[in-house]
Amino acid sequence: xxxxxxxxxxxxxxxxxxxxxxxxxxxxxxxxxxxxxxxxxxxxxxxxxxxxxxxxxxxxxxxxxxxxxxxxxxxxxxxxxxxxxxxxxxxxxxxxxxxxxxxxxxxxxxxxxxxxxxxxxxxxxxxxxxxxxxxxxxxxxxxxxxxxxxxxxxxxxxxxxxxxxxxxxxxxxxxxxxxxxxxxxxxxxxxxxxxxxxxxxxxxxxxxxxxxxxxxxxxxxxxxxxxxxxxxxxxxxxxxxxxxxxxxxxxxxxxxxxxxxxxxxxxxxxxxxxxxxxxxx
Length: 281
Description:
- The longest helix has 16 residues.
- The model has no long low-confidence stretch (mean pLDDT 96).
- The strands form two sheets. Strands 2-1-3-5-6-4 form a six-stranded mixed β-sheet, with helices on both faces. Strands 9-8-7-10-11-12 form a six-stranded parallel β-sheet, sandwiched between helices.
- The chain has eleven helices and twelve strands.
- The protein is of the alpha/beta class.
- The chain is globular and about 60 Å long.
- The chain is 41% helix and 20% strand.
- The protein starts with a strand and ends with a helix.
- The chain folds into two domains: 133 residues, Rossmann fold (3-Layer(aba) Sandwich), CATH 3.40.50; 141 residues, NAD(P)-binding Rossmann-like Domain (Rossmann fold).
């Protein structure tokens, strides 16, 4: 048995995606969603020991608390300071819980594999400074991006996030729309890592309009419901290539499956399950 914890979590596509993977692999596991209130993430990780869950997915607001509750961290989780995955590491009679993060690799898998976009040598902008933004910034820096500019309203948070890209990291912080425009207009890749867009009536983050965008750019929004966010609509009107966050969701889940089972994830079955689940909402 495996599970996801979050608050809220009833909307999660993870059960459909992971159960499709287990079925395709012929593994007699079930994956369920556990609503866990804010502040109880560490307790939920401890319960994993008692229940002997095979794997745990962690979503907001528990990624930091869960990271503090595991016995050790994978290399990406160590750099991010948060986790989205808990797995067992067993050696003889010894067992420990390891915290990992599959978000960065899942983003790159989707970007390269689904969209055919290689960020190496490209100029990129990440909108936001939260956990998703940090994972994307780290991924782009590790992938060899020429620059990764983090746009945020708080200079301190933007600087912490940008540092994850190493020498490629830049910031465009504060409240000046002209600074935001410059950070978007001449970039090859723009990634919205904020939740702005989940509301169809919302304006794009940081006031982005189609006048800031152009053909030849790639605009990615990590929001996957709705499928077309206000930012993606503006991007397509400007002639830019645009994609939502469903691919990242599927690929980060695939990385989790591989960590838990040691077997290649059935991406096709997982993707079909995600699309089917969304269509029935």
